[in-house]
Amino acid sequence: MRKNTILLFVVSAVACLVTTQPLPLVASSSLNASSRQITLTGTIIYPGRIIKYIVAYGFSGGFPNDTADFIANHFDLVDAHYSEQSIYGFRRMKSRNTDLIIIVYRNAMGTDADASGQLEGFNWEVVNQHEDWFVHDKNGNRVRNKFWGWYLMDVGSAGWREFYANWCLRILTETSIDGIFADDVWDSLPCGDFLDSWWNPWTVTNVHIDKAIGDRWYNDMLGFITYVKQRIGNKLLIVNTGDNNGYVDACDGKMDEEFIHPDWYSYSEFHDEYIHWTEKVDRIRTTSVKNRYVMIDAGFSELYGQEPTSEMVNRILMYCFSSYLMALEGSRTSFGFGDYWSSDNSKGYYSIFDQAKALGSPIDEYHVYQSIYARDFANGKVLVNPSNSSYYVLLDQDYRTLNGDIISNITLDNHTGTILFGE
């Protein structure tokens, strides 16, 4: 489900790890690092390139020229809504940044008669005539999402698959758009005996939806992804999913909107009880080493409709961005914070995205460093403290902070990250 970012001067922040057990050594040891590393003049290099990504929804009426130019000049990948009116803006972006990747949104498992669907040419009148494309409850009624309003579609239906793929193929053939972002690619379906107290997104209780639909859901969705990818050929299909296995293998990559600080969390929410930092970072690396695209989506709820302070933004931004650098692998792992409409007026761009390029490539995997985590780069070091405590860290040499100070030690507050440049 999708969303709303800042041109501030970023001051380094930092983070820490509260644990009653010794910190694990890098949990990414199973990623076969030796097959990815390159030796250059005696230094091991793990190739990694910062990719800047932006969510720019809400321009179905067309992109103003200054907006199209801003996106083209500041980002490497944009996820936007499609409409006939948006095509000129996409062309303008491409003319100013030929390397820009443009993907457009389409929900994989839900649709309805809303206006944006009509603008996108996703003809509701056609969909509405095919009752067999919808999932129904035990009373024969269409199942509807109570939060977003869309009807649940049967991803195992040959008709729904063909209709969806035909729409994708048409716009990808007729425009310079590079691919499709398929939202809501769930790897399981709440239904049957799935507890409503755990999660119920429907207007009916889970028990009113036949458990058999849930039993076949994973394979049906896998078949859906496989079919759509086969139809669009060398164009991109990137899916929003929690699955890092079959779904990712069947397409070109995934969005991860449940990274270490999802944008629906408030500034002070971290949920260490189930947001396990190493697990989140390793999930990104697992996908990246498959040479798949990864769109990391981060932020906090105050970015949407409120007025967060620059200190709030900097802290969560640096925590998330530094953690992204811990996961960085190859040239297809991108990072986004908030979106074009973020209330800090950043339009999703922060100077740290380009400042951090001075780090160069990683020269090791992330690892335990005293009581926190660190990763060394050709020209610096990144630190992250994902715990509930602050830690004093004695550095291995002098480093320069983002604001120019030369330091040999640093205190990292809880849930923060920092970037240091070598002297």
CATH level 4 superfamily? Aldolase class I
**Termini, distance in Å?**
43 Å
The helix/strand order is EEEHEHEEHHEHEHEHEHEHEHEEEEEE
Strand order of the largest sheet: 3-4-5-8-9-10-11-12
Q: Which fold name fills CATH's third level, the topology? A: TIM Barrel
**Overall 3D geometry?**
globular
Provide the CATH architecture: Alpha-Beta Barrel
Fraction in beta strands = 15-25%
* Number of discrete domains: 1
Q: How does the major sheet shape up?
A: 8 strands, parallel, barrel
**Count of helical stretches:** 10
What integer is the average pLDDT?
88
The number of E-state strands comes to 18
According to CATH, what is the class? Alpha Beta
**Share of helix among residues?**
25-40%
What is the alpha-carbon Rg in Å?
Answer: 22 Å
Structural class: alpha/beta
Poorly predicted residue ranges: 3-45
Characterization of this structure:
This protein has 423 residues and is α/β, with parallel strands linked by helices. It has one domain: TIM Barrel (Alpha-Beta Barrel). It has ten helices and 18 strands. An eight-stranded parallel barrel has the order 3-4-5-8-9-10-11-12. A hairpin with a 2-residue loop joins β13 and β14. It is globular and about 70 Å long. The relative contact order is 0.19.
